[in-house]
Fold:
Amino acid sequence: MSTEHADLQRFLAINRASWDKIAAQYKGRTALPLYGPLAPAEDELQLLGDVQGLRVIEIGCGSGHSLAYLHACGAAELWGLDLSSEQIRTAGETAKEHGFSPRLFCCPMEANPGIPAGYFDLAVSIYALGWSVDLRATLGHIMRYLRPGGRLVFSWEHPVYSCLKTTPQQIVLDRSYSDEGPIEKLSWKGEPIVMHARKVSTFLNALIETGFGIEKVIEGDLREQKTGEADFPHRWYSKRRARMMPTTLIVKARKP
Ligand SMILES: C[S@@+](CC[C@H](N)C(=O)[O-])C[C@H]1O[C@@H](n2cnc3c(N)ncnc32)[C@H](O)[C@@H]1O
Structure:
């Protein structure tokens, strides 16, 4: 096993263990119709189009609340994949509560657990794609899952927002935006996690190199008026920070 491969497996093991612990506290936090904290939502952006009758797969489906939204929008088939068995269990419960039966896989997005090629009209990933420890491999799988003309819509924390640090006086850059790669740290719940720092251009170039056509890139400004979300000035996602820098990067891309 190469060192790099061993590292990626170790990163996945760390993240799986932490998500299994965090899952119960994360139900529906970043799920459609929201694209991210304090960010514009689907009612405003209209990125998904008419979902009626579509085959949809969610990459990093978490607690299943985006799948429930897509079910309510009339999707014909819903499939979801997540690294965490706890998240998959919760997604199953969410689906049961909402009266639908998705195909769920407990599997890292960097692998294919048996998902058919050329099958899906739409792939979505809400605050999950950036967890990938191998973005090229993940995008390659998504490309194969989609039918020609199928679309990928994903959101992720804006890579500049991830570099910000708030002090009582100022909002400053805490690390270089240019430094990319794995960062081992503690999650907001104190669990060890491995996040990958990537620039906006890294996401966009990876899409282009995988063969996607980019249709829309949104650096979602703060939903100042429309959001009903409470503001917590000292938390990671605060209106004060979001006024300076969008919390969320949203991309819509198409398989030719
Ligand atoms: C921030 S949550 C968002 C998920 C979903 N939008 C929600 O609100 O429940 C990120 C999800 O990505 C999953 N995840 C992290 N790394 C992953 C990987 N390598 N492959 C698949 N899922 C992963 C986590 O288990 C978690 O459910």
User: Anything to note?
Assistant: The mean pLDDT is 93.
